[in-house]
Amino acid sequence: MTEQRPKATDGRRDEEAQRHLLDVELEHLPPQLRWREWMGRVEAVIFAAAEPVTRDTLARVVGKSCNLDLIIDDIREELRSRPYELVSVAGGWQHRTRTAFGDVIRAATGKRDISRPLSRSEALVLMSIAYFQPITRGELSTLFGKEVSRDLISVLRTQNFIAAGPRSPQHGAPYTYVTTKEFLSHFGFDTLRDLPDMEALEDAGLLSKERLLAGEASAIYDDDMV
What is residue 29's three-state secondary structure? Predict the structure, then answer.
């Protein structure tokens, strides 16, 4: 009995059809022109997207021999003198205005950043979730030596920095909390591996591993923890 080729799903079929319609290999072009065309395609896709664009998405518009990392490097080099840049965030790439032009844009548009900055307590809880996720509210309260309120958790969820994670195996199976792609994008991280390591935080006086393990976290933080 001969094996039959698996049937493609509708999504796969549409994707394959689009790829066949678009010449991605560009074998008729000399290498230099082919590379320039790939660069243009990659930048166009990123420019048109509202969210960071993943490697898998970009791979649909370039040839199989195209090294996307080198393409990104070349685009960044060309943007070096421009007021915007190409950054790696949340597992993809995105165009962002350079921070030096923030005041210029606000003056031109009359728009101000109306998002409320996180309080010290909110920032410290968010940092703890980022490092120790998945973690329950009860575990956070134990960590800080005082209750972490539902209101504080709600603030972080409203800003889409955290979301519900898997249920904990603890009694009652409480929900845990994890960080989101918005957290990565907002703070300019590509992945959680980009977070400063524990030693760097200890050197900065922001976190003490020994004191955390000893259950003395509340002594590290301000008394405004709620």
Answer: coil
The answer to whether 96 and 47 have CB atoms below 8 angstroms apart is no
Greatest C-alpha distance within the chain: 73
Q: 134 Cβ partners below 8 Å, 6+ apart?
A: 165, 166, 168, 176, 177, 178
CA of residue 155 relative to chain centroid, distance: 19
Q: Please say whether the beta carbons of 47 and 95 come within 8 A.
A: yes
Q: Do 180 and 52 form a contact (C-beta atoms < 8 A)?
A: no
Phi, psi of 162 (to 5 degrees): -135, 160
CB atoms near residue 73 (< 10 Å): 12
**Is 179 within 8 Å of 187 (Cβ atoms)?**
no
What is the C-alpha to C-alpha distance for residues 37 and 26, in angstroms, rounded to an integer? Answer: 9
Closest by Cα among 83, 85, 148 to 121: 148
What's the gap between Cα 132 and its chain centre? 17
Report helix, strand and coil shares of the chain as percent, to nearest 5.
Answer: 50, 10, 40
Which residues, other chains included, contact 140 with Cβ-Cβ below 8 Å and sequence gap of 6+? 125, 128, 129, 148, 177
Give the pLDDT confidence of 41-97 residue by residue, as tens digits.
Answer: 999 999 999 889 999 999 999 999 999 999 999 999 999 999 989 998 888 999 988
Instruction: Please answer whether residues 168 and 136 qualify as being in contact, where contact means their C-beta atoms are separated by less than 8 angstroms.
Output: yes
pTM of the model: 0.58
